[in-house]
Amino acid sequence: MKATYIDTIRMVERLHRQCMEVIKGEIDRRGIRDLNNIQALILYNIGDGELSVGELTQRGYYLGSNVSYNVRKLVGNGYLIQERSPHDRRSTHVRVSEKGQEVSRYLDEFFEQHANGLDEIGLEQADLERTGNVLTQLLRYWSTPTQYTSAYER
Q: What pTM does this model have?
């Protein structure tokens, strides 16, 4: 069981890295040079919403990234609009600009094409749902402190 568990963890990491490479390839193919893959994914995940920088950080979609740095770059390059919260001047909110919406639409089309091509490799919706359920169970397991407490500490 341990070997399979470790292999699964490694595969999740590899999948994330490969996904980021695929996104980078797509933005490069589109000739977008002032945006990296993580920043493109941030734009996609914000979508039509408005979030605080803290909420972006909490969602934790951006492994290996500094959200504040990426937000500054996205604002500076015109992909995000950042405004102070009217209720809490210490907090800032971001929303995607029209330039950023264009990138988000590119990624949406890209993900749609990929999803439509999964049946060609034998993956069906039910397969992805089962995989998502397993990954959700792992996330819950890791998110519960008593679950990963060392046997020596019990």
A: 0.82
